[in-house]
Design a protein that fits this description.
Chain A is mostly beta strands and 117 residues long. Chain A has no helices and 11 strands. In chain A, strands 2, 4, 5, 6, 9, 10 and 11 form a 7-stranded mixed beta sheet that branches. Chain A has a 4-stranded antiparallel beta sheet with strand order 1-3-8-7, with no helix packed on it. In chain B, strands 2, 5, 6, 10, 11 and 12 form a 6-stranded mixed beta sheet that branches. In chain B, strands 3-9-8-7 form a 4-stranded antiparallel beta sheet, with no helix packed on it. In chain B, strands 1-4 form a two-stranded antiparallel sheet. Chain B is globular and about 45 Å long. Classes of the chains: A mainly beta (117), B mainly beta (115).
Chain lengths: 117, 115
């Protein structure tokens, strides 16, 4: 009964390769996110999707392309991987706020640790 | 600009001590939310609490308590009678509405509880 799941958990690859990370949530949430955690543990949002529509793109290089086939899934595809892409990538989901100004809690997946060699 | 500062990079205490993790935030919004998340050594991010800017009541949940003070833009987290299992990195985050909501995280505080 995992709430937010990600695959794979670990990903080791060579520079220049293309890879994908998958995320699924079974919480019935409308909104999903990708965050990146760097080697210093700093967490920063990358993308946010609401019901398959891109809402936030936080100046991420266009080598990163999120795809949301349905509101329960948000995948992250990365082209031409670089050494600096090594990080932990977290998927999260939340309800869409029902009223203006309200914010919902984001629930995170277990993370995908990406190492680019 | 929205910003969260957790000035304590690392804290180490002996089991059963009380410990407070500081969080200071900056925002121009009048309505905002604050969150705390725990990241244990296993790596996942665990939600602990959400607080909106209109609710300054302190909250207690077992050994955990939170002190929210708008006057000082702080949202501090106290663990009473700490246990080894509390060892983790703790993140304070500010909820920002920018088309959709996003979390702006502090740098995290690594808490080590020694037996």
């Amino acid at each position: 009964d995992t709430a937010v799941s990600q695959t794979p958990k670990y990903l080791v690859t060579q520079m220049g390769n293309d890879k994908s990370i998958k995320c699924e949530q079974n919480l019935g949430h409308d909104t999903m996110y990708w965050y990146k955690q760097d080697s210093k543990k700093f967490l920063k949002i990358m993308f946010s999707y609401n019901n398959k529509e891109l809402i936030i793109n936080e100046t991420v290089p266009n080598r990163f392309s999120p795809k949301s086939p349905d509101k329960a899934h948000l995948n992250l595809h990365i082209n031409s991987l670089e050494l600096g892409d090594s990080a932990v990538y977290f998927c999260a989901s939340s309800q869409k706020p029902r009223t203006s100004g309200l914010q919902e809690t984001q629930y995170f997946g277990p993370g995908t640790r990406l190492l680019v060699l | 600009a929205q910003k969260v500062t957790q000035a304590q990079t690392e804290i180490s205490v002996v089991e059963k001590e009380d410990v407070t993790l500081d969080c200071v935030y900056e925002t121009r919004d009048t309505t905002y939310y604050l969150f705390w998340y725990k990241q244990p050594p296993s790596g996942e991010l665990v939600f602990l609490i959400r607080r909106n800017s209109f609710d300054e009541q302190n909250e207690i949940s077992g050994r955990y308590s939170w002190n929210f003070q708008k006057s000082t833009s702080s949202f501090n987290f106290t663990i009473t009678a700490s246990q080894v299992v509390d060892s983790a990195v703790y993140f304070c985050a500010l909820g920002v509405l920018q088309g959709a909501q996003k979390l702006v995280f502090g740098q995290g505080t690594r808490l080590t509880i020694n037996p």
